[in-house]
Amino acid sequence: MYPELDKCPRSLLVCEKSNFEHEKSRHDTHVSKHYFNHKVSVVIPGCGALSSRLASVINNFSKYFLVKNLPVYEFLDKDFLKNVVWNGALYALSYKTSIDQDNTIALLPSGQLILSVDKDTYEQLGLEGKPSQYNHRQPMRYVVTINLTDKSMAPEGKRYQRVLSSLKERVPLKSDFLLGRHNSGADRDRALQSLLSRYQWKEHRPVVSSHTLKDMPCPSLNALDLRGDQRSCDPHSFLEWLGAVSAGVSCDNTAASFLSTYVCPEPQTLVSQALHCTVSGLLLPEDIYSLLQELQRYFDEPKITSWLSLTVHGFMDSPVSWGDAEHGFHKGGENFYNLVLFKNQDYWLHMGTGSHDRCPP
Fold first, then answer.
1. Would you tell me which of 46, 108, 119, 124 could form a disulfide with 112, CB atoms 3.0–4.6 Å apart?
2. Nearest Cα to Cα of residue 190 among 274, 82, 109
3. Which DSSP category does 76 fall into?
4. What is the C-alpha to C-alpha distance for residues 262 and 3, in angstroms, rounded to an integer?
5. Helix (H) / strand (E) containing 39
6. Are 294 and 57 within 8 A, CB to CB?
7. pTM of the predicted model as reported, rounded to 2 decimal places
8. Tens-digit pLDDT profile for residues 286-316
9. 96: alpha, beta or left? (left if phi > 0; alpha if psi -120 to 50)
10. 8 A C-beta contact, residue 296 and residue 340
11. Where are the alpha helices (DSSP H) in 10-133?
12. pLDDT (average), residues 244-259
């Protein structure tokens, strides 16, 4: 009825406020269920450098592996299932696959294997799935979810054999994969090394970048004014400002600038310095939660600023966003969350997605 609406993709921003010490606070759930993260950004007004404790937490982020041409059926290896998958120790995501064009695979730490595949692949696999929520008029994409921890997937069982046959003989899906694990142990290490030894792989560590911004206008935020009605800027304006900081866009709007007319939203405060630190790679929720806990302790000693910000971006082409909620790309593939921490342990939580996502939890 309104074709012009198709030109403007819907985006969704969910905002809430709470306190870290409140018994019903859900901050830990939101962090732990956002499985596949590629970038973390920390902004601290009034700070010039990372403290030794913050630097230690960031530098201890888990390493991860890039494995070339890994067949999906390897995740069903009996030894690998028993010692890695069933222990909830692994995050796996197909690398450089486009969720709206290619077959995209993810293995969640819950043991769910997610196959987001095109129609031809789905029909050849012969496994039960469901049409993608983000198809057009005719289903052209399907999602197959296999719970590898279910009793029916015990090795030698009929369902296990059927799934293995589909992935090994019918359609031998393979891809480059990013693999990450949080827990280690002798059996887990051995099983993972056994898998890696059969393929070309390389170990990576998250890339850390930190710099200090001088004489920077920052939004003035009040913990009680989430909507920005009186004493704070509104959430959209605040997130836009964070994006400008991350992209290195000047907020001065000087007469000599021909690149940007952007200005920091009101009300604002000029700070002599601000820290912007980013971490990129395959970033595990457990490491991000450790960083959040350390940031909560930042205000244990008196500080100039009354707030700081933590932003976490998910992979654009991950088949899931939060938990096992299906994620699509459409025109941006955005799925992120932002936490604003205040001195009194209050926080704001912003969760953003595009048009091809469920409402964040």
1. 108
2. 82
3. G
4. 31
5. strand 37-45
6. yes
7. 0.92
8. 999 999 999 999 999 888 899 999 999 999 8
9. left
10. no
11. 27-32, 52-59, 78-83, 119-125
12. 72
